[in-house]
Amino acid sequence: MRRNQKKFFLLALLVCGKMLFDLSGCTNEDQVLDEYVPGGLNYSETELVSEFTTSPPSIDGVIESKWDDVTPLKTRVVVPDQLGPDKVPANFYGYGGKSYNVSLKSMFDNENIYMLLEWDDNTHSLDRETWYFEPAEKKWKQENRYPTFNSDGKLIREAFYEDKFAFLWNVNNSVAGWSTATCYKSCHTGLDAASGYSRHYTNGPDERIDMWHWKLVREGAFGTFDDQYQDNATPNGRKSDPKVAGTGYGDNKQSLNITGTTTAVSVPKYVIPGQKYYYWITQDQVSGGTAKLITAVDANGILSYDGGTIDPNTDVDFQRAGSRSGAKGIPSIVNSKVQGNEGDITAKWTHTGSGYILELQRKLNTGDADKVDINFADLSDQYFGIGLFENAALAHAIKTNLLLKFKK
Q1: Within its chain, how far is the Cα of 343 from the centroid?
Q2: Which pairing describes strands 187-188 and 148-149: parallel, antiparallel, or unpaired?
Q3: Contact predicate 126/217, CB 8 Å
Q4: Whole-angstrom Cα distance, residue 309 to residue 303?
Q5: Contact partners, residue 319, CB within 8 Å, separation at least 6
Q6: CA distance 183 to 209
Q7: What is the spatial distance between Cα 105 and Cα 392, in angstroms, rounded to a whole number?
Q8: Which CATH architecture is the domain 8-123+162-245+340-406 placed in?
Q9: How far apart, in whole angstroms, are the C-alpha atoms of residue 347 and residue 163?
Q10: Cα dist. 217→42, 124, 162, 364 in Å?
Q11: pLDDT in tens, 83-132
């Protein structure tokens, strides 16, 4: 549909702001109509218009003036409430009702699509499942990725995770009913604890959803958006696109026997001795010898590595410091720049203190369109949904039924 100077109405928006995740499935309600006048309103609430450019933006997390003339999509995203079976603190518990302002802009050229994302978040969540030492038990543990509550449901410790942002797209129009529900076509709730309470998977073997998943700690340092997809595998249909073996991120974790025993315990795999407030270890630091392989742990939790030891009983910086991890908390992730199809999307970010600026670039056609990637090359309209994760593993604010249109 071409744009002109006449007033017209956009397609209906399914508002998710106060939508309740029930235990039988996802619901959406409160349909509203958004009126947008080209050259009139300075934004749309449902439509992302991608402008053609012969001078693409630099992907650096800094907003250039060339973005000024691009009409934004502005919306507010809300985390649905979910308690889970028998009010067990499930993966959305503690996040329900939180909401955020989001702005999206887009450009394209003959090869690529570019996007500028902005959203409010005054906490820069880097402390992801950090390793700490528990002196009372003489054990190394990881902070919980979920908020911790007491038996009365009172929050006693915030989650230790990272900030994330996601897009979902319909691959080759394979998902039935996508234009009326987008994300909710693959959303399944009411699952048991072993299945993760709520998961994404498609409803048929031929359905595929392209999932772009930006992860601050695991990929933010290397300028990529994790290119993933969803199929009908249950209970979790989320997969990553193929990558070059040995690239990307992995857990900084290993199992060692306590010295002189056959008792195995979990401990960090690598540490940067003396380092404070660091949130990932890179493969280059491992290869270059800055990060040391932990080779032994004794009954008191003392770690050994080539060239030294760490005694967390006397160095309290490895222990918890009130509501946060200690200064020498050890990162949970070892990472490198992902290579291959999983790294199809380039992304750079800035945290301003009050929110994020994130720019991304992706080929209109990655070459994987028949498998797991959406193909924008014909510049056809594409419905999509977004998810915003503030210090959350799975709980996310949601907006469905957004529409990408290429201005021809």
Answers
A1: 14
A2: unpaired
A3: yes
A4: 5
A5: 132, 133, 134, 135, 312, 326
A6: 9
A7: 25
A8: Sandwich (2.60)
A9: 14
A10: 34, 11, 6, 27
A11: 665 555 578 889 999 999 999 999 999 999 999 999 999 999 999 999 99
Burial 114-153 (b: 16+ CB within 10 A, else e): bbbbbbbbeeebbbbbbbbbebeebebebbebbbeeeeee
296 CB-contact burial (10 Å; exposed 0-12 / middle 13-18 / buried 19+): middle
Q: Phi/psi at 167 (nearest 5 deg)?
A: -120, 145
Asked if residue 136 lies in contact with residue 145, where contact means CB atoms within 8 angstroms, the answer is no
Query: Domain spans of the chain?
Result: 8-123+162-245+340-406, 249-335
For 63, counting Cβ atoms within 10 Å of its Cβ (0-12 exposed, 13-18 middle, 19+ buried), the class is middle
Residues 6 or more apart whose Cβ sits within 8 Å of residue 163? 121, 124, 125, 216, 356, 389, 390, 391
3-state secondary structure 335-351: ECCCCCHHHCEEEEEEE
What SS3 state is found at 281? strand
Of 215, 317, 236, the C-alpha closest to 275 is: 317
- Phi, psi of 331, rounded to the nearest 5 degrees: -60, 155
Range of weakest confidence among 4-18, 240-254, 265-279, 320-334: 4-18
% of the chain residues with pLDDT over 90: 81
346: left (phi over 0), alpha (psi -120 to 50) or beta: beta
CA distances 30 to 16, 27, 237, 386, 403, Å, are 8, 11, 29, 18, 18
Q: Is the pLDDT of residue 219 over 70?
A: yes
